[in-house]
Every structure is written in C-alpha cells, then in structure tokens.
Design goal:
It is a single chain. By secondary structure, the chain is of the alpha/beta class. The chain has a single domain, classed as P-loop containing nucleotide triphosphate hydrolases (Rossmann fold, 3-Layer(aba) Sandwich), CATH 3.40.50.300. The chain has 9 helices and 8 strands. The protein is globular. Bound molecules: 2'-deoxycytidine-5'-monophosphate. 2'-deoxycytidine-5'-monophosphate binds next to helix 2, helix 4 and helix 8.
Length: 237
C-alpha cells in the first residue's frame, strides 16, 4: 500500500522499532509520559490477535493461518488507558480486556508466527496508521519507521546483545512470579523470534535508513529515555 492511501498525519509521530528485550516498551512508556504523547504498543495488537487465534485450538498451521487472517479482518482492537491500573495501557479485543493474557511465552511465539502472514499485516496496517496519525503519538513495533509511518517525524532503532536481552527477559519473568525457564531456553526463544521477525518476506524487522540507532546493552533505562527525550525536544516541534 502506498503512503498516499494511508491516513494523513495530523501532528508529530515518533517511531520506535527494534527486537524483543531491548527495553523498547519500557522506554516508550516513559518517553510518552515525559512528553505527554500517547503510547501505541503495536506488538500488543499482534499479541491480541495471536491470543484470539490460539483460543480456537486449531490443529494445523493452515487452519491457524486462515483463522488469523479472518480474525485480523473482523476483530475490533482498541486501547484504553486506565490511570493507576497495572498495566495502565490496556488492550481490548472485541470489548474484552486481554492485557494480561497476551503476556505469555505461548502468545509471544504465536504472535511472531502470525505476524509473518502478509494478509494479517495488511489488515492491521490501517488500524495502526489511524491510531498514530492523530499526532503527538509514539508507536513502538518492528516496522513502524519502515512501513506504518515511513513519514514519522523521528525514528529510533533500539538494539542490545542477545545475552543482555535474555537476562532482562528472565528477570521480568522471575519478578512476575511465573515459572521461569532456564537462561539458555529464554535466549533460544529470543533467537527464534529474532530469526522469524527479521527473515519474513513482508515488512521484516529492519532499521529505517533515517532511524537513530541506540544500543541499550550497557545503558540504564533512564539513560535511554533521556537520550531519546533530548533528541525529540531538539528535532520535533
Ligand atoms: O513487541 P512484541 O514482542 O510485543 O511483539 C510481538 C510480536 O508481534 C513480535 O514477535 C513481532 C510482531 N510485531 C510485528 O511484526 N510488527 C509490529 N509492528 C509489532 C510486533
């Protein structure tokens, strides 16, 4: 779909892309708060779609693909901010709050699989564009700077070593009280998802040529956020 077919931007839009475990979600949430922008977690949309598809308990990959396409075209995905709730950013799928159900390893793997289906990406493109184009929005995902908002006012691409990302993910799982797999297993799952996300034929995870790289391996969250905030204040009016 060409840019001219997409909803026009009505104010500043910031794009943040990068693989899992780079601190992207936490940094985006904090940056949005600091700037008074709306945070749009596009991964949550793919996750909600994956959850609805998994709930159908289909037996073959072909049936799963067909169901995912059908659900992407027909389901209603909405964001709602509930101040004081944990998490504050809630995602509703057909009116049902699925914010907690989408944060499991099964949904992570299924969302990576389902997000490689071209018809799914096409069906979700317009929604992501509409959520962002109102302006003063920060969208995080994998293809925001390359496909959803190639015309974003500022683009960041976050990276970190696989070891550091696995360490962070393991820590998150441990503090959430879930049964944590071994470090090697978490690292393996991250590498698998990276492989799927970067090698899919449509809208693969890739750095936009005009994106600013931030390697978060040795940076604290505060350092990442303050670097990004400084650049937004300097370059985006
Ligand atoms: O950011 P996340 O880990 O919550 O995303 C879950 C999956 O969704 C991820 O494996 C890739 C996919 N995704 C995508 O393909 N494009 C996006 N803009 C956001 C997420």
């Amino acid at each position: 779909m060409s840019l001219s077919n997409l909803a026009p931007k009505q104010g500043p839009v910031i794009a943040i892309d990068g693989p899992a475990g780079t601190g992207k979600s936490s940094a985006t949430r904090r940056l949005a708060q600091a700037l008074g922008y709306v945070h749009v977690d596009t991964g949550a949309i793919y996750r909600a779609l994956a959850l609805l598809t998994l709930e159908k308990k289909l037996e073959t990959p072909a049936l799963e693909t067909a169901a995912a396409i059908e659900i992407a075209r027909s389901a209603r995905f909405e964001f709602r901010r509930i101040v004081g709730a944990d998490p504050e950013n809630r995602i509703l799928a057909d009116g049902r709050d699925v914010s907690l159900l989408i944060r499991t390893p099964e949904v992570s793997m299924a969302s990576s699989r389902i997000s490689a289906i071209p018809e799914v990406r096409a069906a979700l493109l317009d929604l992501q564009r509409r959520l962002g184009c109102v302006g003063r929005t920060i969208l995080e995902g994998r293809d925001i700077g390359t496909v959803v908002f190639p015309d974003a006012d500022l683009k960041f691409f976050l990276t970190a070593s696989v070891e550091e990302r696995a360490k962070r993910r393991l820590y998150e799982l441990e503090i959430s009280g879930k049964d944590a797999p071994s470090f090697e297993e978490v690292k393996r799952q991250i590498e698998l998802r990276d492989h799927g996300d970067t090698t899919r034929s449509i809208a693969p995870l890739k750095r936009a040529p005009d994106a600013i790289d931030i390697d978060t391996t040795t940076l604290t969250l505060d350092e990442v956020v303050s670097r990004m905030e400084g650049l937004v204040r300097e370059r985006v009016s």
